[in-house]
């Protein structure tokens, strides 16, 4: 057990460092502030290094008098809920806060944390974070008597990336501004949206994030025996974003013997927020389950620095960015494909009601490419009775799209 004085020192050091931290706006700020005022625990969940700690620190800056604890600190390893009681007693004794607020970062590392929170949530405002979807399991929900507010945190959107880089509201009609935007978008495609590593273009740190998710958030959490197999599976999937796959065809590339094991592993990787799995759209849920799936990594930097994606696959990097942006906007998304192989990248739905169709293409350089990209949109629109058809390209084409299809640059879509 850590001594009383050492805990006081850790808490005081955290408070000192947080007060001096530089902050910038995030799109989720208003939602966070709204939920922070409510009496029930606020649970921030999402992929490791997406900015959950930053949001907690920002809240603490704006609301002095709270206490922040990072349970990934090696000094807390192996501790149980008795540590939480000790921290609480020190906090109340030293601060005597009018409204007690406790920020518990990566709290899943402490055994019995949920009972501690359930016991004190009537008199303490808790803000909790975790990098694993197990934090949201029915067991914990039951322990918290169902009274908590879950809020998913994603890596930086392109709009947030621009703000963090110090770029104001863009004007697409000013040549110089557009040139700067394109350069920053190229950085965003390559380095992704993890605040610390992406903004500093730290390739080593980006590589370490992927390894940390596999070896800290997945393998020990789900008691994976075949560590090499799940790592090989993960690296294959980040190297092939947006490509349809079957569990059977993944067996020879991963050296995992059984389809059910691969299916379970992909489910675990999704729970750690490493991937988003897309089903082929069908009004029949049974058919959705048996059709080939597509999968996209949570950030383009994984494909670049943890996989082996070739430079000519830039279109799939754009697809990854759009997929993650749609998830950030809380959309239900599928892909569409007909019996003749014509395919649309994204069907944006509300439940099972299709609202819009989105096709992503790197460039439209001639009529042949225009037809290849727009014909599936028109076929899917007729099949699904959808009116909003969007063609996204990295560079605006000089050609006109068929009637009913709106062309936008990827940057315009991301910043709208």
Produce a short descriptive summary.
45% of the residues lie in helices and 16% in strands.
Describe this structure in words.
The chain has 416 residues and is an alpha/beta fold. It has three domains: 4-152, P-loop containing nucleotide triphosphate hydrolases (Rossmann fold), CATH 3.40.50; 202-309, Arc Repressor Mutant, subunit A; 311-416, Trna Endonuclease, Chain: A, domain 1, CATH 3.40.1350. It has 18 helices and twelve strands. It has helices at residues 4-19, 29-36, 52-62, 81-95, 113-120, 138-143, 158-164, 175-191, 195-199, 203-218, 227-238, 251-254, 259-271, 285-290, 300-305, 314-328, 367-384, 410-415; strands spanning 42-45, 67-70, 101-105, 125-130, 149-152, 275-278, 294-297, 332-337, 343-350, 353-361, 388-393, 405-409. Strands 2-3-4-1-5 form a five-stranded parallel beta sheet. It has a five-stranded mixed beta sheet with strand order 8-9-10-11-12, with helices on both faces. Strand 8 (332-337) and strand 9 (343-350) form a beta hairpin. The radius of gyration is 23 Å and the shape is globular.
Please give a handful of descriptors for the protein shown.
five-stranded mixed β-sheet; 3 domains; 18 helices; single chain; Rossmann fold; five-stranded parallel β-sheet; alpha/beta; 416 residues; Trna Endonuclease, Chain: A, domain 1
Major β-sheet annotation: 5 strands, parallel
CATH overall fold name of the largest domain: Rossmann fold
The number of helices is: 18
Number of domains as seen in the coordinates = 3
Shape: globular
Sequence stretches where pLDDT stays below 50 over 5 or more residues: none
CATH class of the largest domain: Alpha Beta
Q: Helix amount, in percent?
A: 40-55%
Nearest-integer average pLDDT: 91
Question: Class by helix and strand content?
Answer: alpha/beta
> What is the string of helix and strand elements?
HHEHEHEHEHEHHHHHHHEHEHHEEEHEEH
How far apart are the first and last residues' alpha carbons, in Å? 52 Å
Strands, count: 12
- Which CATH architecture of the largest domain is right? 3-Layer(aba) Sandwich
CATH superfamily of the largest domain: P-loop containing nucleotide triphosphate hydrolases
Strand content bin:
15-25%
Global Rg: 23 Å
């Amino acid at each position: 057990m850590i001594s009383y004085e050492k805990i006081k020192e850790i808490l005081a050091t955290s408070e000192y460092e947080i007060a001096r931290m530089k902050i910038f706006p995030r799109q989720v700020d208003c939602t966070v502030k709204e939920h922070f005022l409510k009496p029930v625990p606020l649970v921030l969940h999402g992929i490791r290094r997406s900015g959950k700690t930053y949001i907690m620190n920002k809240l603490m800056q704006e609301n002095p008098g709270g206490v922040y604890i990072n349970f990934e600190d090696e000094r807390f390893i192996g501790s149980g809920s008795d540590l939480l009681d000790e921290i609480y007693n020190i906090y109340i004794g030293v601060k005597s806060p009018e409204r007690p607020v406790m920020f518990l970062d990566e709290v899943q590392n402490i055994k019995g944390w949920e009972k501690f929170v359930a016991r004190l949530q009537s008199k303490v405002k808790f803000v909790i974070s975790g990098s694993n979807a197990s934090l949201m399991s029915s067991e914990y929900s039951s322990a918290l008597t169902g009274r908590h507010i879950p809020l998913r945190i994603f890596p930086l959107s392109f709009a947030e990336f621009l703000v963090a880089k110090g770029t104001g509201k863009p004007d697409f009609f000013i040549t110089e501004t557009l040139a700067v935007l394109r350069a920053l978008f190229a950085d965003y495609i390559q380095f992704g949206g993890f605040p610390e590593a992406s903004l500093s273009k730290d390739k080593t740190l980006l590589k370490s994030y992927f390894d940390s998710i596999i070896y800290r958030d997945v393998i020990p959490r789900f008691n994976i025996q075949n560590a090499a197999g799940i790592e090989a599976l993960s690296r294959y999937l980040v190297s092939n974003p947006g490509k349809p796959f079957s569990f059977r065809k993944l067996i020879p590339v991963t050296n995992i013997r059984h389809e059910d094991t691969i299916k379970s592993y992909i489910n675990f990787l999704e729970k750690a927020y490493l991937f988003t799995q897309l089903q082929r759209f069908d009004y029949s849920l049974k058919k959705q389950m048996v059709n080939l799936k597509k999968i996209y990594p949570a950030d383009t930097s994984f494909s670049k620095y943890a996989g082996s994606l070739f430079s000519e696959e830039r279109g799939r990097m754009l697809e990854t960015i759009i997929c993650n942006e749609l998830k950030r906007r809380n959309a239900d998304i599928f892909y569409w494909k007909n019996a003749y192989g014509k395919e649309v990248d994204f069907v944006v739905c509300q439940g099972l009601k299709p609202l819009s169709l989105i096709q992503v293409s790197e460039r439209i350089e001639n009529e042949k490419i225009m037809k290849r990209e727009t014909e599936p949109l028109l076929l899917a629109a007729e099949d699904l009775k959808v009116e909003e058809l969007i063609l996204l390209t990295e560079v605006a084409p000089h050609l006109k799209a068929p009637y009913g299809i709106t062309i936008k640059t990827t940057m315009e879509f991301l910043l709208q």
